[in-house]
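question for whoever is on the cluster today: can someone run the full assembly for these? six chains, 1824 residues total. i dont have access anymore since they changed the login thing
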Amino acid sequence: MPALSEVIAALEALWPPGQAEQWDAVGTVCGDTGNPEARVERVLFAVDPVQEVVDEAVRLGADLLVTHHPLYLRGTTTVAASTFKGRVVHTLIRNGIALHVAHTNADRADPGVSDALAGALGLRVTAPLVPDTDDPAGRRGLGRICELDEPVTLAAFAERAASRLPATAAGIRVAGDPEREVRTVAVCGGSGDSLFDVVRAAGADVYVTADLRHHPASEAQQQAAMPTGGGPALLDAAHWATEWPWTEQAAAQLDEISDRHGWNLRTHVSRTVTDPWTAHVASSSANPPPATGAGDTDTPGAPR
Amino acid sequence: MPALSEVIAALEALWPPGQAEQWDAVGTVCGDTGNPEARVERVLFAVDPVQEVVDEAVRLGADLLVTHHPLYLRGTTTVAASTFKGRVVHTLIRNGIALHVAHTNADRADPGVSDALAGALGLRVTAPLVPDTDDPAGRRGLGRICELDEPVTLAAFAERAASRLPATAAGIRVAGDPEREVRTVAVCGGSGDSLFDVVRAAGADVYVTADLRHHPASEAQQQAAMPTGGGPALLDAAHWATEWPWTEQAAAQLDEISDRHGWNLRTHVSRTVTDPWTAHVASSSANPPPATGAGDTDTPGAPR
Amino acid sequence: MPALSEVIAALEALWPPGQAEQWDAVGTVCGDTGNPEARVERVLFAVDPVQEVVDEAVRLGADLLVTHHPLYLRGTTTVAASTFKGRVVHTLIRNGIALHVAHTNADRADPGVSDALAGALGLRVTAPLVPDTDDPAGRRGLGRICELDEPVTLAAFAERAASRLPATAAGIRVAGDPEREVRTVAVCGGSGDSLFDVVRAAGADVYVTADLRHHPASEAQQQAAMPTGGGPALLDAAHWATEWPWTEQAAAQLDEISDRHGWNLRTHVSRTVTDPWTAHVASSSANPPPATGAGDTDTPGAPR
Amino acid sequence: MPALSEVIAALEALWPPGQAEQWDAVGTVCGDTGNPEARVERVLFAVDPVQEVVDEAVRLGADLLVTHHPLYLRGTTTVAASTFKGRVVHTLIRNGIALHVAHTNADRADPGVSDALAGALGLRVTAPLVPDTDDPAGRRGLGRICELDEPVTLAAFAERAASRLPATAAGIRVAGDPEREVRTVAVCGGSGDSLFDVVRAAGADVYVTADLRHHPASEAQQQAAMPTGGGPALLDAAHWATEWPWTEQAAAQLDEISDRHGWNLRTHVSRTVTDPWTAHVASSSANPPPATGAGDTDTPGAPR
Amino acid sequence: MPALSEVIAALEALWPPGQAEQWDAVGTVCGDTGNPEARVERVLFAVDPVQEVVDEAVRLGADLLVTHHPLYLRGTTTVAASTFKGRVVHTLIRNGIALHVAHTNADRADPGVSDALAGALGLRVTAPLVPDTDDPAGRRGLGRICELDEPVTLAAFAERAASRLPATAAGIRVAGDPEREVRTVAVCGGSGDSLFDVVRAAGADVYVTADLRHHPASEAQQQAAMPTGGGPALLDAAHWATEWPWTEQAAAQLDEISDRHGWNLRTHVSRTVTDPWTAHVASSSANPPPATGAGDTDTPGAPR
Amino acid sequence: MPALSEVIAALEALWPPGQAEQWDAVGTVCGDTGNPEARVERVLFAVDPVQEVVDEAVRLGADLLVTHHPLYLRGTTTVAASTFKGRVVHTLIRNGIALHVAHTNADRADPGVSDALAGALGLRVTAPLVPDTDDPAGRRGLGRICELDEPVTLAAFAERAASRLPATAAGIRVAGDPEREVRTVAVCGGSGDSLFDVVRAAGADVYVTADLRHHPASEAQQQAAMPTGGGPALLDAAHWATEWPWTEQAAAQLDEISDRHGWNLRTHVSRTVTDPWTAHVASSSANPPPATGAGDTDTPGAPR
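^ ran it for u. tokens below:
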């Protein structure tokens, strides 16, 4: 059984903390890393360090939990168990489980979060959307530009995404002409609304990401509709679903290291869906009625 | 036919610009307001000042477009028609159509955007979520706390919302136990993630708003799941759908003023759906497989 | 007749928007630049995009107005015609006139605003005052250092400026010994009070600029009067007058391009004086009486 | 002979330092205020603490110099005599002369700098432009609104100003219709461009101040020219000339105090003109030629 | 045995978290406060939440540690045990010990940290140095002004402090004339260099505080030496020593509450000296030699 | 006798002002540097520009005072003699004494302040703690890393410091195990708490600096006590005592220059102790009693 410090060192080699964004909070959050007696036998990978996942780690007997999202992105001055994050800390420490976070350093790694997303969608990656300036190989960076081997319609591509990404209640939202031909695909696991400009510059036909809100999505669509030119269609999946493929990829990376060192680690991937949305209901309203020529607007109070 | 300046004065009495948030950009954005010759016969109300809506105003022969969202929330130094917002300005001016915006001043008005949303959902409003400190009547402010006459389950309430809000492709996302009994409802038209704390303090059973992202929604759900207590279930509808009821309410308010002054205005409500999402696809993935006791996590590479 | 987009491209080649200061707002402000049908036959050049100039463009039948000053240096959220800048926008769009601005990018160009000013004053330019670091030729940058072929007195140089710069009601203010010999001249079209330090370092005998206020001018003169050393005399002309020579230079540049492409453009230079000062009145006060030895100060209330 | 500390106390009662703006630097700048032996016999009042004025104080044998402008508005970390302000400090200390500054506290006092300016112009003060909120009498504050007993034309009013303000080389600049009738006058000694909005709200026919630059003056004139409404004509005098009347007023105030206490002070008012501009030259250019109908613009290169 | 939540509520009533400074981080930092099963039998009070103190709490079998200093004054994103603060968190949680902090809320309370310090020195408190504006009784606030019943010399007062404050290796530093008579004493437990101005305004003869550095202490002494007036002598004790008396006071307050409720709590006060300085060595240098008239300065290299 | 400007030029060559920190205020603060008649015969070097030192300069007949600490680190808007710094300015100017400051430029120079400190302690300097990036020789920068020829115990090293640094009332505070072996020593004249991280990274056994406060010192000691590793012991001497060795070094440097130029300067080093602390009293308290096994904590009110 390897020491905790050895496993942490392996994780930091895969996703160097120094490659995270400055505002990010990555690395080891909890656990007895300085204690040479601390050993690791089981490791659980997950997207979110929430109580359900920590309880799963306890049930599994895991010694180490590796998550994509930080427990405390902004600094805390308390870990009292009356807060839900403090309760996570108490559960971890009482059960001797360490927590390690690889967030934007995993986003930008080679392979990274968006490589796993592209892989899940069956896409061929050609380059990062925002390449790291210090990577001569040109493979590290935020987001990925990808190609489909055969062009398909936007509608068909959305069906493909729905069948290949892990299932969530919320499903996938699409913006654009269903018949539009799609060949070049930009992907960014997690919240991608800050990358619209580079996505457009990359000439993507569709952009797959998460957490798009009304104003950025509306402005992207207005821009796309300009006569002078384009801009991508949009696919908005569940944030969790776009990042979950990374947990399988990461577990496989650690397995390979474990084999190489003869560590005999047992790695697990959490299948708990931590997307907060638990149901989706389609609109059943007849309101507003569909536009029908001259009748596409009307006076309230008038009979409809 | 009233002068443009008279109609604008009526709109500013309904939604005083001084009651908007400091960061907001409300009031008259375009049009010949200083010209005493400028007259108004037709008025169109809409949520978004986008090209489709402006084209609708042109087709209708409207003299004035009233929208909830600002055209320029942040200041611009150009209105060149090569930008999609500049194209809106050019279309408006060439067709002699004025544009007036009532945004956070309409949110906080009595009645306001969230009153219209509550009305559409058949709820009885009891108070604002964040009351304006300078309103002795206690009716103005952001969001609304409401009561249902009869408690229903969360699932039934979600069905009600789906059948009463205007239809959108994206539908409604729900977070919480479908059997949870719902009686007190907090509503906030548009993006409401900044009001979680007051919603929780108000003891709401469910919160209806829009544009919720992974982290705020996830943290709200983690908080709600604490043994020491609650927090609301969540309903996330299309941003546009939560604000559209206000356009009908606003048109009716202006109709009433028109009748009182004998203006003979013709008011219209746009039925163009400007929610950017044009399709929704449900997940059809078998990935990750449902948790089955000990098998709820597994090792990648192992046979599944 | 060239397309509007072709003419704009020519202007942007002369004065690349990327060479403007970060705080500046240059480029195309108004007009149908994305429309391939939009054509240009007449172009008017002016310093200020004010209503009188826009009315002149309408009378001329111009398709394009090019000004030095931005219409909106700070972003606006409204172009309502009740504001004087919104009235400009409405007039431009109703009359199909585009507006393009070249401000600090024209200041720093080769040739730029201060080259035109130097030319009007009959000076030989030797270098920029603040050279652009990325111009190997050393010709671009803010302000210019110049030489007179023959030294003259400050009084004579001021007379020369008064006879060569376009006439304004305000005339020219001078600070310094009228007999001082002047050979090296620093010039900066428009407000130049931020360049005092480089002007002094350049060893200029006189500095020609505009908009100098009491404190910077007073401090420059106090510094100049130090026994240990110098500093320039000052000539403060009307802001408009120091920048107007650029409009002739710019029109000639576009003429040359038009000839080269066979565009047959008709370029015009506005002769409307847009300096705000419409009259100047010389002091006729006997107050305070001239200093006369011991009597150069006195006690109020005492007979004078 | 009073102690220096007694005279300073009297000055601070006239212009309490606590009533200065937060960014200002008023009070005693130099001198042996803590020394009970320090006495005052002669006091010199001036606008600017410049070397010429300090030399005048030395020649007079003054013990105290009182100026309107601070020596160091921004803090200094050196008083070395190689700087022109350090030279002032060395001259003052070597000659035993104290320096006291009353700047924005004198602007806002009752009577204040703008009262003296109004008095010099023969105007009847009705109220401050920006009243101090803590003055129940409503007399303290920035700027003054005044009335003329008989309305006069703008041209006549400008002549009056030229004959009543102390003479400077720069004279007075005027913006507006010379025949405009003037009755309500706003005055603000020194740089007044931050008060345009309150001047307009006060309904002033003309605004007398100093240091106006192109953009604020141009925008004020564009606003004044709007069909919907007015705004003042402008008179821009030398900064020094608008504040010099205060030195006479201040000397008389201290004389009165001296008489009351039997101090037998000798007060003097500096007549040194410290406006930096030493000459004015009227435009003698024929450029650009006056507008003559169709010929009001032309093509460069064409014969003129 | 009371519930943890009951004891925390009692502590928050003594030192309301809302009365802490905005930058401070007080309240419960660790522990199972939301768990109704969590009980408290033993409480340890200490100044610093350092490992030695936490180990003492473990040895004692304490359920709750109450400290004056925050564990995390600035927010943390990790509690990994490889950091010394994370090691504290791990030790606390593994041993089921809660941590509660009362810092600036205890400083400003009635009685507060400086009351305990005054009591230890045998002083009679007359008022806070910086009274809380919302305390009508005038007893809450930062620091305390105190009186000695009989005036003593500064030297005698320093001896008193050395014999009454808890012993530390560093002892006490004194600045001022040893024969100066001391009657009014200002005290501020912990770092007090921000209160010099109010101490001086209060007319204190001596100021007892901690953590004074060269520049503030030097400036205070220079100010005190001005012929025009005073300012206090200074006593700089160990930071820990000035705050330790509060731990006894606080324990007695909780004992009294425990008796009132019949809780039967066992309260303890830590006697571990957590001042970081473990030794003090007096200067034994002959360098620089004492001043002896003309010889008080010399030329390096000259024989001494 | 050299001109003042020549001597200043020599000082600026030794400690170039451009090598000071951006926030610092170095160079000539007072004196007639621009006057070619100003001559220098005697120069006094000292740490602090306080009144006692200036009086010493007057008594000596010095023409120039050179200090390490700035008179005005933050800018001043007054030099009135009622402030203690203004009194210094008045004394200097009345007595014709110039003041020159070399602060962080002297800290970072080669040799610099910490070289002098290392020399006083008999240490061999190996490198700066924070090397200047633009010094190819690697000798300039903040602080110094040093070696002892023979390792000694911390207790012995503290005795050495006490016997070699100039004597002050406050003496030296020590943190760490007295038996710890010390070989590598980090030194930083003046306040050194910002350099803890580089000191630790340099592997120093002890850190000699000044002005350490409770929290940084406590955190350094907690870090040093971590099982995983070290961190230095601490020696906190009087701020003045750590910088005084530089005055001797600086005087010798100027002597050498004087000899080279045949200036015949007379340089002096002030022996006035300007450390603000004038006495030290050791703790004589029996409070708290020493820990004795189980009795190391107790209940207040219980008999002791």
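summary bc i know u wont read the tokens: The mean pLDDT of chain F is 93. DSSP finds nine helices and 13 strands in chain F.
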